[in-house]
Amino acid sequence: MHYDYPDIRFYIDGHWTLGSPPVSAFMDVDDPSSGSVIGRVPKADTTTIEAALASARRGQALWRTYGPARRTEIQLAACRLLRERVDAIAAWSALELGTPMSDARNYVLRAADIVEWDANEGRRLYGRVVPSDPGLRQMVVPEPVGIVAAFTPWNAPVLTPCRKIGSALAAGCALIMKAAEETPASAMAVVQAFADAGVPAGVINMVFGNPALVSEQLIDAPEVRMVTFTGSVPVGKQLAQRAGMHMKPILMELGGHAPVIVCEDADIDLAAKRCVAAKFRNGGQACIAPTRFFIHEKVYGDFEKAFAAATQALKVGAPHEPGVAVGPLASPRRRSAVHALVSEAVDQGARLVCGGVEQPGPGYFFPPTILADIPPHARILHEEPFGPVACLARYTDLNEVLAQANALPYGLAGYVFGQDAARLEHIAGSLECGAVAINHLTVSTNGIPFGGVKDSGIGREGGSEGVRSYTVSKTVTQAFGI
């Protein structure tokens, strides 16, 4: 095992544990930069999950009695601890995920910012008094939805747990989180910060294990009142279907295949520089990563040249190496999937501008890759590649390119570069996605809602909408003088 890698445990009822009796099943945790095993993660059994449910019942009963000011104070203390521990948490995250250390630090700090905003938003969960006839008072009161089952992915091992914990706690909810088995130390560090900040035992619980076993037992449990998931479209649909059987509300942030429209009046150097940084961050393993680039014919050549030059300048390597911008993919399975998509497209006639070949040596590295002139039927244009691959195409007619951008069942993020205000407004209003960024690529940060349409999800995380997602509105009417 890596010398500073922690022993992975569940977090139940305020204790780090392997269950009672201790579980006997474990799975390896890999370092994707070397392919070596750095630790092991326990797999929860039904007894462990039932213990987490019992803990959450006690935690929910207690946490809902804490006033908003008290809950906010505790969460702000957790923010301070996340910031104080940024280097240690980032080191584990970089080790598990392979993302460069500088990016890992930024993700931890962004996560702390999100928790801070959510914590303060918990003090702004206002109800309202509805005007009524004399002798009658009508009120709408937000209340915690109850225990939340939260499922978080490996590609954002600090940010996504903080999103879900921050909003749930701000709304007065306890939760049971099934964190990703590929990145367990990152999730442990997040939970530890909240525990050290004073979150009572039972309010936060965390398990790892077989996704089907854990999800079925948690979603079927009567005390679980809400399900939130970040991950792939197929898994999200399965969880949503199961939650629907029990009439439980869901918050789903699922996959994307984000289009980028580069207009003829765009600042090409700016667009290329910003698109390269966003495309290949985290090895392209992000649901909001720009992937399908539609460039106006008049500026296509200049954009491809600038985009390729910036891409080829990126240093690929292990997360702690100086100057590294792109790390490995998370697993050999992910690398094989990306390679297959690229190879199929090339075999079908796509032009390989750069990259496209698996790198020799240890680790799960795949170079930043650009494909152009891709046949319309190529699988990579229809399936989210979730890797370091950019697909470039020319366009001349704006209405046609908008139809292409909207043709897929995905609808998470979209991007546009240009100068004409009327055209930019038209494109932003026409793209069928939950978030649009104009002349930059930031669509997910603290204080603003984020989520998709179509197959990319239901509901919103972040902003006032995100915290409100964890509440239910209760109508209270009272008659006087009876």
Question: Can you walk me through this structure?
Answer:
With 482 residues, the protein is of the alpha/beta class. The protein folds into two domains: 10-254 and 456-475, Aldehyde Dehydrogenase, Chain A, domain 1, CATH 3.40.605; 258-445, Aldehyde Dehydrogenase, Chain A, domain 2. The chain is 38% helix and 21% strand. The protein contains 14 helices and 20 strands. It has helices at 46-63, 68-84, 86-97, 101-121, 159-171, 184-197, 211-220, 233-245, 268-280, 300-312, 332-347, 398-405, 421-430, 463-468; strands at 10-12, 15-17, 26-31, 36-42, 128-130, 136-144, 147-151, 175-178, 204-207, 224-230, 250-253, 258-262, 290-296, 351-354, 369-372, 389-395, 413-417, 435-438, 457-458, 471-479. The strands form five sheets. The chain has a seven-stranded mixed β-sheet with strand order 14-15-16-13-12-17-18, with helices on both faces. Strands 9-8-7-10-11-19 form a six-stranded mixed β-sheet, with helices on both faces. It has a three-stranded antiparallel β-sheet with strand order 5-6-20, with no helix packed on it. α2 (68-84) runs antiparallel to α4 (101-121), α2 packs antiparallel against α5 and α9 (268-280) crosses α10 (300-312).
